[in-house]
Write a structure and sequence with these properties.
Blueprint (H helix, E strand, L loop, with lengths): L2 E7 L5 H15 L2 E6 L7 H4 L5 H10 L1 E4 L13 H8 L4 E7 L12 E7 L9 E5 L2 E4 L5 H18 L3 E6 L7 H13 L6 E6 H10 L6 E4 L1 H12 L11 E3 L4 E4 L17 H13 L3 H17 L13 H13 L7
Parallel strand pairs: 1-2, 1-3, 3-12, 5-10, 8-9, 8-10
Antiparallel strand pairs: 4-5, 4-11, 6-7, 11-12
Helix pairs in contact: 1-9, 1-11, 5-6, 9-10, 10-11
The chain binds 1,4-dihydronicotinamide adenine dinucleotide.
């Protein structure tokens, strides 16, 4: 077991509450981590005058890895999203979102086991927007062959490494023939190098309908930035909601692990948020560090708390608060658990 220096961004809204719970769970694994705490978003504005301070970027460049809580982006005005900036600045081009049913959480479906791979740097998130004339605004959707092929290759390599069988690309190339057409063509070309992995395409609206009607037909979904953002929340709703779905932003040099959900201002400051999504994001981080035994222990403990159902949070039908859930997980970890493979 190694010891690590990792950048920590607690974020705002429910961020600090779920971060506290997550750090306690990580500590219970015994993996030694020295956290380098950094701020971003609105919190960073008074001191640094920008939502993503250079200190934060330098810290991640030095450590290679960060664990991040959610950061609020004000709607319709204000500075550019700290999340989008971070992903672009560090070229974290792959957004990985595994979505798996957890026994014990009541949801509309059982045995969901999907992975969303979302391109994280382009598309309508390029931030190129302007007012052409009063009453007419324009946003530019940027898709490049290089980034499309890069994310497709990442997804196929991931599928190969994890023994997954099928990749489905979601697109709207019937309407956006050039931009989505390029994303699609790039993915198709990369797929030829991986004949053992089934390759499919679905128009995005049909994909959404089919996900709701028959989600088990899918394995990995490869999506451009905006579709990936939307479909991740849709799929999270199939397994119990945003409170339980983890994520990771991965590039060739750096990785930032964070839940799919946002800062949840409606429940912030009440210690009632579900920390599972962030705990599972930390689990992905531990796997990235090859700390598989610690990751397995967290997984066993969390799933065992859900199976028992006594200490789960309100969003999934329980009454426990954030701290009670984390304490229950830690208590399970103190007992010997069988490590899965
Ligand atoms: P949200 O994900 O914060 O909340 C949507 C709904 O899910 C809310 O009802 C919330 O209470 C619930 N929810 C989310 N996480 C939960 C948890 N851990 N436990 C229990 N319930 C949970 O999405 P919303 O409201 O659209 O966005 C709020 C802010 O978060 C916005 O400023 C947005 O820009 C930002 N955001 C930040 C992200 C990030 O930092 N990576 C990702 C998504 C949104």
């Amino acid at each position: 077991m190694g010891s690590y220096e990792i950048t920590l961004i607690p974020g705002d809204g429910i961020g600090p509450e779920i971060t506290k719970a997550t750090l306690a769970v990580i500590e219970a694994t015994g993996v030694e981590i020295k956290w380098e705490k950094q701020i971003a978003g609105q919190e960073a504005m008074p001191e640094y005058g920008q939502p993503v301070p250079n200190e934060l970027l330098d810290s991640i460049r030095k450590n290679g890895i960060a664990l991040k809580g959610p950061i609020t982006t004000v709607i319709g005005k204000g500075f550019r999203s700290a999340n989008v900036t971070l992903r672009k600045e560090l070229d974290l081009y792959a957004n990985l979102r595994p979505v798996k049913s957890i026994p014990g959480i009541k949801s509309r479906y059982e045995d969901i086991d999907l992975v969303i791979v979302r391109e994280n740097t382009e598309d309508l998130y390029s931030g190129i927007e302007h007012v052409i004339a009063p009453g007419i605004s324009q946003s530019i959707k940027v898709i490049t062959a290089l980034s499309s092929a890069r994310i497709a290759r990442w997804a196929f390599n991931y599928a190969q490494k994890k023994g997954r069988k099928k990749i489905t690309v979601g697109h709207k190339a019937n309407i956006m023939k050039l931009s989505d057409g390029l994303f699609l063509d790039s993915a198709k070309e990369v797929s030829r190098d991986f004949p053992e992995i089934e390759y499919n395409e679905r128009i995005i609206d049909n994909l959404c309908m089919q996900l709701v009607m028959n989600p088990h037909q899918f394995d990995i979904l490869l999506l451009s930035n905006l579709y990936g953002d939307i479909v991740s929340d849709l799929v999270a709703g199939m397994v119990g909601g945003l409170g339980v779905v983890p994520g990771a932003n991965i590039g060739d040099k750096y990785a930032v692990f964070e839940a799919v959900h946002g800062s949840a201002p409606d429940i912030a400051g009440k210690n009632i948020a579900n920390p599972t999504a962030m705990i599972f994001s930390a689990l992905l981080m531990l796997r990235h560090l090859a700390e598989n035994e610690a990751a397995d222990r967290i997984f066993e403990a969390v799933t065992s708390v859900y199976k028992e159902g006594k200490h789960v949070t309100r969003d999934v039908g329980g009454e426990a608060d954030t701290t009670e859930f984390a304490d229950a997980v830690i208590q399970k970890m103190e007992k010997p658990v069988k490590a899965s493979t």
